[in-house]
Amino acid sequence: MTSSTATSLADETYHAIRKHVATGHWPPGMRLVNRKLGAELGVSMVPVREALNRLASEGLVEHVPGAGAFVRRLDRKQIVQLYALREQLECFAAREAAARIRPDQLVQLEKLCADWRTLLGRIRQSKGGTATAAVLRRWLDNDLKFHRVLIEAADNPWLTKSVMDLRMLSVVARNKPGALPLDSAERTHRDHEKLVTVLGKGSAEEAERLMRRHVSDGCEFILSHLEE
To answer: Which band of pLDDT confidence, cut at 50, 70 and 90, is reported for residue 127?
Structure first.
């Protein structure tokens, strides 16, 4: 096997594991056994080990001495710290995006908002008025896409990398069926639509204000769910 082939296999394994974690297929606290993961993904333990080390450096995986690797489970203090940092970075990103966002990026954001409206309809029709596992995963996938487009509009690659890594941790923290009731989904959707409007107007101060509230609400929601 050439070095380029090995690198490609390691990258593919990394992205496969990351996707399983991000979609909740492998939930917080799950033990990640190299041999078992290799068998499931059809690779040897070497690329699995490299992928887990890479995910550990991003904070998605935690190595516990004597116990192995686990999907990271955030406690209350860690969630508060995570969102405090996110708030600072994403408010800055919102201001920058308001000055730099392109028409095609606004179109992408509008399409995601349209898809959320479809998902809201499914939540309204669901038993108990909460998102199913499939709807939640699509909702959170859209959320990552929405904020990636917004942050990339700020035109700062270091900011994009930092914020998206932090947002991935947030996704893992809340990726549970039933963790998105209708009222929260509606509020989140309204926030996103308002952000698209103010970004289109180039209103930096309003974009920052909306983003600050949006991140703060997200933190309160997760903490409330954690206490339940």
So the answer is: confident
